[in-house]
Amino acid sequence: MSWWRTEEDTQPWKGRYAPFDLVKELCIAVGVITLLAILLTVLLSSPDDKSSTIAQWSHELPADFATAAAKELDETSPTAEYGPPYNHSSGSVQHFLLLHPQRWLGVSHPINTADDYVIKPLQTVPNDPALQSAVAEYKAAPEKQKKEWSEAYGKPLEEYSEAVEEKKTPPSTVSVDQSTGTVTVKASGAGPVPTMMASLQSLAQSGGLEGGLVTSSQFFQTDYTKPLLFMADGGLLAERAETQHLLGRQWGLMNETGSFPGQPWLWLYALWYQVEPMKTSPNADIQVLLIMGLLSLAFICIPFIPVINRIPRWIPVYKLIWKEHYRESPPAA
Amino acid sequence: MSAAPTTPPKTPSKSWTVKVREKGVEALPPERLLPDGQPTYVASWIYVFGVASIASLIVIIGSGCILALKGPAWWHYTGVGHFFNSIHMWSVELFFFVMVVHLWGNYWMAAWRGGRGRVWVTGAIIFLVAVPAALTGYVSQQNFDAQWISTQAKDAMNSVGVGSFFNLTNFGQMYSFHILLLPIAVVALVSVHVLLVRRNGVVPPFELEKKLAAAPAASRRADGPPQASTGAQT
Hints:
Chain A is mostly helical. Chain A has helices at residues 6-9, 22-44, 54-60, 62-74, 101-105, 113-123, 129-140, 143-165, 193-205, 208-214, 225-233, 236-243, 267-272, 284-300, 311-314, 317-321, 323-328; strands at residues 17-19, 174-177, 182-185. The mean pLDDT of chain A is 91. Chain B has helices spanning 16-27, 30-33, 48-70, 74-77, 79-108, 117-138, 144-159, 171-200, 206-213; one strand spanning 37-39. Chains A and B meet through helix 1, strand 1, helix 2, helix 5 and helix 11 of A and strand 1, helix 3, helix 5, helix 6 and helix 7 of B.
């Protein structure tokens, strides 16, 4: 195969040579790039928007936090219904024809939203017998009862969120004090859930919840999967992202905060999310990745793809590139 | 019981070390590895972008090493740290910019001609490996960008099953990929790419390729200058 085996095909250059100092050229290039990087640094710096915290989220958007937490307890949040690699649900499981890689690889980072985000953190709260009694009551209840309590608590919150989103008058069953970051839900038939949720909100506002979500089985931790997914179930990250043009429909995949270039090399990847059927498909990610996988393979194989590998001969951009050479040795007509 | 040999083996051809050395020198003699002359057709600004890509990579690694020395949080609370982070970020932007121009330039030169397919293939793979190298940097920043990018990009990784062993929300894993595993891959690929370029020489213009193809096979050699070159053989 002539394109691959270089021994047979690389031809010797028997023409003229010009002096060339490889090491000097590299040193000059490093100097120029360093100066350019320093110049851009001095002129433009780099973005560093502080990360959001669960404490901040529960203070600034208390109703949103309470709604997300209620869904975690009820196991109806996006994370609870996600599927692999977090659990065995199917809400975010994608496939393409007979390809089900997400399902095939299984659950590798297990998350039980009720236990991990609500019950276990609450069990760490000391000196609160009323809370521990409520948690014990909840844990001991049958699944059907748990569901009824969670729905009784969560439904008014959902109505409140919808009303706020549609800029209507919120229902009187939910009162939110923005100054203290407290949420009161008048829910009959919610059992111990209001007590649990009020304590969870206090724990979150004290900063204790994020610590509890990071430190699980050992002291040293670097895995932020649980707190990040919990926060992503709420609205704070998305709200900040929208103002910074980071949402998918804003080509956010290749943007970063501020007016910085981000990852422009991902433009083609971001493009596929803007066109149908990917734009509205529940399997958009796997579709886009398969397209990009094929295109990447084609990119690697350009020398061996008919037509594509002939285009440079037909469109003579090379005459511009080798302008100097052709000035001295014009090609034969 | 036979006597133990008293003299060292005198069969250098069986030595792995010698074999590797001989193969290496045969494939890339020093004057071809570090040439002091280039064919005269290598005269265009487009050739600058190849060396500029390597230069950018050197600046990325240099600034990244300084950031790594002080730990991942340093740049958030010191002006010096932020300065080096900015250099790191802009050298990445420059790296991708010059690399893309370099790739386009080589496409329009059809630089895979004359048995140079491996040069193109390694170059294209470098670009593709550099993308996750940059992505893992974005999710290792420990700021809002890292939070948002990791929680959004995880869905793409999960959809193809990659998320089960490449978890974008696991800072420790992403940091390891960013400062060790992927840079090793990029540097290794760049090394192979550069050695292949030196071995095969720079692709000639189209019409010269035909003349070279007509040359006697016995005289075939890549386009390094003749041995003991003075560097000015015009």
